[in-house]
């Protein structure tokens, strides 16, 4: 039986691919790495919308003659920094660059800190009740830290995929 991919050489029985095609397949972003890729894509779509919405809130706040407090300034800085970190992490991830471990760890830790900033601080300072979506954001950040940081630290596959 020939290789399922190139049809030139004898295939390995386990995978149906020849050794050369197996090596090529190992360097692709696939299997479990689809989940962090999906998370990065979703973040790249959601964060600009959040920035736009938050900017609208700030302009409305200023329109009524109020001044910006330190929480609002910190929130805008947090959103901008989160967008920049997500943009950089996405670029490194999809270009399969070396050093992705540090970048993704920074991305997951900052995402958790940002979600805590937007949920815990308003609850403590202003007594705002948490919504289900707020809890979902915090849980998502915790899952990112608990599952994906160990994966990026311990997985041998990271060294194979991210080599440029």
From TrEMBL:
Q: What is this protein called?
A: DUF2569 domain-containing protein
Alphabetical list of InterPro entries matching this protein: DUF2569
Q: Which residues does UniProt call coiled coil?
A: none
Q: Which domain of life is it from?
A: Bacteria
**Natural source organism:** Providencia manganoxydans
Its transmembrane ranges are 32-51, 71-94, 106-129, 135-154
Alphabetically list the UniProt keywords: Membrane, Transmembrane, Transmembrane helix
């Amino acid at each position: 039986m020939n290789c399922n991919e190139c049809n030139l050489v004898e295939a390995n029985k386990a995978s149906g691919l020849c050794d050369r095609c197996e090596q090529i397949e190992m360097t692709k972003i696939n299997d479990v790495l689809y989940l962090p890729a999906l998370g990065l894509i979703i973040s790249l779509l959601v964060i600009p919308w959040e920035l736009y919405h938050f900017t609208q809130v700030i302009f409305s706040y200023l329109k009524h003659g109020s001044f910006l407090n330190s929480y609002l300034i910190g929130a805008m800085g947090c959103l901008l920094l989160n967008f920049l970190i997500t943009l950089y992490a996405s670029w490194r991830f999809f270009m399969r660059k070396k050093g992705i471990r540090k970048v993704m760890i920074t991305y997951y830790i900052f995402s958790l800190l940002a979600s805590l900033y937007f949920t815990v601080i308003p609850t403590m300072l202003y007594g705002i009740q948490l919504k289900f979506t707020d809890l979902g954001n915090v849980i998502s950040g915790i899952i990112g830290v608990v599952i994906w940081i160990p994966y990026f630290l311990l997985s041998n596959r990271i060294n194979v995929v991210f080599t440029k």
